[in-house]
Amino acid sequence: MILTKHELSPIALFTFNRLNVLKQTVISLQNCRLAKESDLHIFSDAAKDKRDYDIVVQVREYLKTVIGFKNITIHYAQTNMGLAKSILNGVSEILKVNESVIVLEDDLVVSSNFLSYTNQALNEYKTNPDILSISGYSFPIKVPEKYQYDNYFTKRASSWGWATWKNKWENIDWLVTDYVSFSKNTKEKKNFDKMGSDMSNMLAKQMRGEINSWAIRWCYHQFKKNLYTVYPVVSKVMSIGYGEGATNTKSGRSRYITPIDSTKKREFKFNQVANLDKRFTKQFVAKFNRKTRTYYKIKTFLKNILRF
Protein backbone atom coordinates (compact mmCIF):
# COMPACT_ATOMS: atom_id res chain seq x y z
CA MET A 1 0.00 0.00 0.00
CA ILE A 2 1.59 3.27 -1.12
CA LEU A 3 0.57 6.17 1.10
CA THR A 4 0.52 9.77 -0.04
CA LYS A 5 1.78 12.65 2.08
CA HIS A 6 -1.81 13.54 2.89
CA GLU A 7 -2.40 10.08 4.35
CA LEU A 8 0.44 10.26 6.89
CA SER A 9 -0.68 10.85 10.46
CA PRO A 10 1.05 13.33 12.75
CA ILE A 11 3.20 11.92 15.54
CA ALA A 12 2.73 12.99 19.17
CA LEU A 13 5.74 12.37 21.43
CA PHE A 14 5.38 12.91 25.19
CA THR A 15 8.39 13.61 27.39
CA PHE A 16 9.23 14.76 30.89
CA ASN A 17 12.59 14.33 32.63
CA ARG A 18 14.43 11.34 31.16
CA LEU A 19 16.87 12.78 28.67
CA ASN A 20 18.87 9.62 27.96
CA VAL A 21 15.91 7.46 26.99
CA LEU A 22 14.30 10.37 25.13
CA LYS A 23 17.36 10.61 22.89
CA GLN A 24 17.11 6.90 22.07
CA THR A 25 13.43 7.31 21.24
CA VAL A 26 14.08 10.26 18.94
CA ILE A 27 16.98 8.53 17.16
CA SER A 28 14.88 5.44 16.46
CA LEU A 29 12.04 7.61 15.20
CA GLN A 30 14.39 9.60 12.97
CA ASN A 31 15.54 6.32 11.44
CA CYS A 32 12.00 5.40 10.45
CA ARG A 33 11.01 5.35 6.83
CA LEU A 34 8.45 8.18 6.40
CA ALA A 35 9.93 10.26 9.24
CA LYS A 36 11.01 13.04 6.88
CA GLU A 37 7.49 13.23 5.45
CA SER A 38 5.80 13.26 8.88
CA ASP A 39 4.83 16.07 11.25
CA LEU A 40 6.16 15.64 14.80
CA HIS A 41 4.56 17.25 17.85
CA ILE A 42 6.57 17.02 21.07
CA PHE A 43 4.81 17.63 24.38
CA SER A 44 7.26 18.58 27.13
CA ASP A 45 5.90 18.43 30.67
CA ALA A 46 7.08 20.98 33.24
CA ALA A 47 9.04 20.24 36.41
CA LYS A 48 7.17 18.94 39.44
CA ASP A 49 9.52 20.77 41.82
CA LYS A 50 13.05 22.13 42.10
CA ARG A 51 14.54 18.65 41.84
CA ASP A 52 13.25 18.29 38.27
CA TYR A 53 13.97 21.81 37.12
CA ASP A 54 17.50 21.39 35.76
CA ILE A 55 16.84 18.15 33.89
CA VAL A 56 13.65 19.54 32.34
CA VAL A 57 15.68 22.53 31.13
CA GLN A 58 18.20 20.10 29.61
CA VAL A 59 15.40 18.14 27.94
CA ARG A 60 13.98 21.31 26.43
CA GLU A 61 17.37 22.45 25.19
CA TYR A 62 17.82 19.08 23.50
CA LEU A 63 14.37 19.26 21.90
CA LYS A 64 15.42 22.45 20.12
CA THR A 65 18.10 20.45 18.28
CA VAL A 66 15.82 17.69 16.97
CA ILE A 67 15.65 17.44 13.18
CA GLY A 68 14.65 14.85 10.61
CA PHE A 69 10.90 15.44 10.26
CA LYS A 70 8.74 17.46 7.89
CA ASN A 71 7.63 19.85 10.62
CA ILE A 72 8.45 19.89 14.34
CA THR A 73 6.24 21.64 16.89
CA ILE A 74 7.22 21.68 20.56
CA HIS A 75 4.48 22.20 23.13
CA TYR A 76 5.84 23.38 26.49
CA ALA A 77 3.67 22.84 29.56
CA GLN A 78 3.85 25.76 31.99
CA THR A 79 3.01 23.63 35.03
CA ASN A 80 3.47 19.93 35.69
CA MET A 81 0.56 17.97 34.29
CA GLY A 82 1.62 14.36 34.82
CA LEU A 83 1.54 11.71 32.12
CA ALA A 84 -2.20 10.99 32.10
CA LYS A 85 -3.30 14.61 31.73
CA SER A 86 -0.50 15.33 29.25
CA ILE A 87 -1.66 12.54 26.96
CA LEU A 88 -5.37 13.29 27.27
CA ASN A 89 -4.83 16.98 26.50
CA GLY A 90 -2.12 16.48 23.89
CA VAL A 91 -3.89 13.81 21.87
CA SER A 92 -7.12 15.80 22.01
CA GLU A 93 -5.29 18.89 20.77
CA ILE A 94 -3.81 17.04 17.78
CA LEU A 95 -7.16 15.46 16.91
CA LYS A 96 -8.91 18.83 16.82
CA VAL A 97 -7.28 19.43 13.46
CA ASN A 98 -6.35 15.90 12.31
CA GLU A 99 -8.32 12.73 11.68
CA SER A 100 -5.75 10.42 13.28
CA VAL A 101 -2.60 10.44 15.42
CA ILE A 102 0.37 8.22 16.26
CA VAL A 103 1.42 8.39 19.92
CA LEU A 104 4.74 7.65 21.62
CA GLU A 105 6.21 8.21 25.06
CA ASP A 106 9.85 9.06 25.70
CA ASP A 107 10.91 5.55 26.71
CA LEU A 108 10.13 3.60 23.56
CA VAL A 109 12.42 2.49 20.75
CA VAL A 110 10.72 1.82 17.43
CA SER A 111 11.62 -0.26 14.39
CA SER A 112 12.48 1.40 11.09
CA ASN A 113 9.10 0.32 9.69
CA PHE A 114 7.04 1.51 12.68
CA LEU A 115 5.61 4.50 10.83
CA SER A 116 4.93 2.41 7.73
CA TYR A 117 3.01 -0.13 9.79
CA THR A 118 0.98 2.34 11.86
CA ASN A 119 0.09 4.59 8.94
CA GLN A 120 -0.97 1.66 6.77
CA ALA A 121 -3.04 0.19 9.59
CA LEU A 122 -4.71 3.54 10.26
CA ASN A 123 -5.63 3.81 6.60
CA GLU A 124 -6.71 0.16 6.38
CA TYR A 125 -9.14 0.30 9.32
CA LYS A 126 -10.24 3.94 9.31
CA THR A 127 -13.81 3.07 8.28
CA ASN A 128 -14.05 -0.10 10.37
CA PRO A 129 -16.43 0.58 13.29
CA ASP A 130 -15.05 -2.36 15.28
CA ILE A 131 -11.48 -1.07 15.64
CA LEU A 132 -10.51 1.28 18.46
CA SER A 133 -6.75 1.56 18.02
CA ILE A 134 -3.55 0.32 16.45
CA SER A 135 -0.74 -1.02 18.63
CA GLY A 136 2.86 -0.91 17.50
CA TYR A 137 3.91 -3.13 20.40
CA SER A 138 3.34 -6.85 20.76
CA PHE A 139 4.47 -9.50 23.19
CA PRO A 140 6.79 -12.10 21.68
CA ILE A 141 4.28 -14.63 20.40
CA LYS A 142 4.37 -17.85 18.46
CA VAL A 143 2.78 -17.22 15.07
CA PRO A 144 0.79 -20.19 13.73
CA GLU A 145 2.31 -21.94 10.75
CA LYS A 146 1.07 -20.60 7.41
CA TYR A 147 -0.61 -17.59 9.11
CA GLN A 148 -0.95 -15.12 6.25
CA TYR A 149 -1.47 -11.78 8.01
CA ASP A 150 0.86 -9.28 9.65
CA ASN A 151 -1.57 -8.56 12.46
CA TYR A 152 -3.91 -10.10 14.99
CA PHE A 153 -6.63 -8.63 17.21
CA THR A 154 -7.25 -8.33 20.93
CA LYS A 155 -9.77 -6.44 23.02
CA ARG A 156 -7.11 -4.80 25.17
CA ALA A 157 -5.40 -1.65 23.91
CA SER A 158 -1.70 -0.98 24.38
CA SER A 159 -0.18 2.34 25.41
CA TRP A 160 3.28 1.57 24.02
CA GLY A 161 3.42 3.13 20.59
CA TRP A 162 -0.17 3.31 19.43
CA ALA A 163 -2.47 5.14 17.07
CA THR A 164 -6.14 6.01 16.78
CA TRP A 165 -8.67 8.19 14.99
CA LYS A 166 -10.52 11.33 15.94
CA ASN A 167 -13.94 9.65 15.82
CA LYS A 168 -12.75 6.91 18.22
CA TRP A 169 -11.15 9.31 20.71
CA GLU A 170 -14.10 11.66 20.96
CA ASN A 171 -16.91 11.10 23.45
CA ILE A 172 -14.92 8.84 25.79
CA ASP A 173 -16.15 9.05 29.37
CA TRP A 174 -12.80 9.69 31.06
CA LEU A 175 -14.58 10.18 34.40
CA VAL A 176 -16.04 6.65 34.17
CA THR A 177 -19.39 7.89 35.45
CA ASP A 178 -20.92 4.42 35.43
CA TYR A 179 -18.23 2.97 37.70
CA VAL A 180 -20.44 2.55 40.76
CA SER A 181 -22.85 0.28 38.92
CA PHE A 182 -19.98 -1.57 37.22
CA SER A 183 -18.20 -2.17 40.53
CA LYS A 184 -21.29 -3.92 41.89
CA ASN A 185 -21.72 -6.14 38.85
CA THR A 186 -19.66 -9.29 39.36
CA LYS A 187 -20.44 -10.63 35.90
CA GLU A 188 -19.30 -7.43 34.20
CA LYS A 189 -16.05 -7.37 36.16
CA LYS A 190 -15.40 -10.98 35.25
CA ASN A 191 -15.98 -10.18 31.58
CA PHE A 192 -13.67 -7.16 31.81
CA ASP A 193 -10.95 -9.41 33.22
CA LYS A 194 -11.11 -11.79 30.25
CA MET A 195 -8.33 -9.77 28.62
CA GLY A 196 -6.23 -9.86 31.79
CA SER A 197 -6.91 -10.58 35.45
CA ASP A 198 -5.47 -7.18 36.37
CA MET A 199 -8.07 -5.07 34.56
CA SER A 200 -10.79 -4.62 37.19
CA ASN A 201 -8.23 -4.13 39.93
CA MET A 202 -6.44 -1.39 38.00
CA LEU A 203 -9.70 0.39 37.29
CA ALA A 204 -10.61 0.19 40.98
CA LYS A 205 -7.25 1.72 41.92
CA GLN A 206 -7.83 4.47 39.38
CA MET A 207 -11.23 5.29 40.80
CA ARG A 208 -9.86 5.28 44.36
CA GLY A 209 -7.16 7.72 43.31
CA GLU A 210 -4.32 5.29 44.00
CA ILE A 211 -3.01 5.51 40.43
CA ASN A 212 -3.49 8.00 37.62
CA SER A 213 -3.82 5.98 34.43
CA TRP A 214 -5.43 7.22 31.25
CA ALA A 215 -4.81 3.77 29.70
CA ILE A 216 -7.04 1.73 32.02
CA ARG A 217 -9.90 4.14 31.29
CA TRP A 218 -9.17 3.73 27.58
CA CYS A 219 -9.36 -0.05 28.02
CA TYR A 220 -12.60 0.24 29.97
CA HIS A 221 -14.14 2.28 27.16
CA GLN A 222 -12.97 -0.40 24.74
CA PHE A 223 -14.64 -3.08 26.86
CA LYS A 224 -17.93 -1.18 27.11
CA LYS A 225 -18.04 -0.59 23.35
CA ASN A 226 -16.80 -4.10 22.47
CA LEU A 227 -13.96 -2.83 20.27
CA TYR A 228 -10.71 -4.35 19.03
CA THR A 229 -7.08 -3.27 18.91
CA VAL A 230 -4.86 -4.25 15.98
CA TYR A 231 -1.53 -5.81 17.04
CA PRO A 232 1.48 -6.66 14.85
CA VAL A 233 2.64 -10.28 14.84
CA VAL A 234 6.18 -8.90 15.19
CA SER A 235 6.54 -5.95 17.55
CA LYS A 236 7.49 -2.59 16.09
CA VAL A 237 8.11 -1.14 19.57
CA MET A 238 10.35 -1.97 22.52
CA SER A 239 10.15 -0.32 25.93
CA ILE A 240 13.39 0.93 27.48
CA GLY A 241 11.71 2.74 30.34
CA TYR A 242 11.98 0.31 33.24
CA GLY A 243 13.31 1.38 36.60
CA GLU A 244 13.69 4.72 38.35
CA GLY A 245 11.93 7.59 36.65
CA ALA A 246 9.34 5.41 34.98
CA THR A 247 5.80 6.64 35.57
CA ASN A 248 4.00 3.31 35.52
CA THR A 249 6.79 0.71 35.39
CA LYS A 250 9.05 1.05 38.39
CA SER A 251 10.85 -2.28 38.09
CA GLY A 252 12.10 -4.42 35.23
CA ARG A 253 9.33 -6.64 33.96
CA SER A 254 10.90 -9.16 31.63
CA ARG A 255 7.56 -10.49 30.46
CA TYR A 256 7.22 -7.32 28.38
CA ILE A 257 10.63 -7.62 26.71
CA THR A 258 10.29 -8.38 23.03
CA PRO A 259 12.54 -8.23 19.97
CA ILE A 260 11.45 -5.60 17.49
CA ASP A 261 11.06 -6.02 13.76
CA SER A 262 14.51 -5.94 12.15
CA THR A 263 13.27 -6.45 8.60
CA LYS A 264 12.93 -3.76 5.98
CA LYS A 265 9.35 -4.73 5.27
CA ARG A 266 7.29 -1.82 3.98
CA GLU A 267 4.03 -3.40 2.88
CA PHE A 268 1.76 -5.22 5.33
CA LYS A 269 -1.14 -7.58 4.87
CA PHE A 270 -4.00 -6.91 7.30
CA ASN A 271 -6.88 -9.16 8.23
CA GLN A 272 -10.09 -7.32 7.36
CA VAL A 273 -12.28 -9.31 9.75
CA ALA A 274 -11.80 -8.35 13.39
CA ASN A 275 -11.96 -11.41 15.60
CA LEU A 276 -10.29 -13.06 18.57
CA ASP A 277 -8.14 -15.86 17.21
CA LYS A 278 -7.70 -18.18 20.18
CA ARG A 279 -4.18 -19.08 19.04
CA PHE A 280 -3.13 -15.49 19.72
CA THR A 281 -5.57 -14.62 22.49
CA LYS A 282 -4.39 -17.46 24.73
CA GLN A 283 -0.78 -16.30 24.50
CA PHE A 284 -1.73 -12.64 24.98
CA VAL A 285 -3.95 -13.10 28.02
CA ALA A 286 -1.43 -15.44 29.65
CA LYS A 287 0.95 -12.50 30.03
CA PHE A 288 -1.54 -10.81 32.34
CA ASN A 289 -2.74 -13.71 34.50
CA ARG A 290 -1.97 -13.73 38.22
CA LYS A 291 0.45 -16.63 38.04
CA THR A 292 2.57 -14.94 35.38
CA ARG A 293 2.52 -11.55 37.07
CA THR A 294 3.49 -13.08 40.43
CA TYR A 295 6.32 -15.06 38.84
CA TYR A 296 7.86 -11.99 37.24
CA LYS A 297 7.47 -9.87 40.37
CA ILE A 298 9.39 -12.49 42.37
CA LYS A 299 11.99 -12.77 39.61
CA THR A 300 12.53 -9.01 39.59
CA PHE A 301 12.68 -8.89 43.39
CA LEU A 302 15.36 -11.59 43.50
CA LYS A 303 17.38 -9.85 40.80
CA ASN A 304 17.33 -6.64 42.82
CA ILE A 305 18.48 -8.47 45.95
CA LEU A 306 21.38 -10.11 44.12
CA ARG A 307 22.66 -6.72 43.01
CA PHE A 308 23.69 -5.89 46.58
UniProtKB/TrEMBL annotation:
InterPro entries from the UniProt entry: Nucleotide-diphossugar_trans
Name under which the protein is recorded: Sugar transferase
Organism annotation: hydrothermal vent metagenome
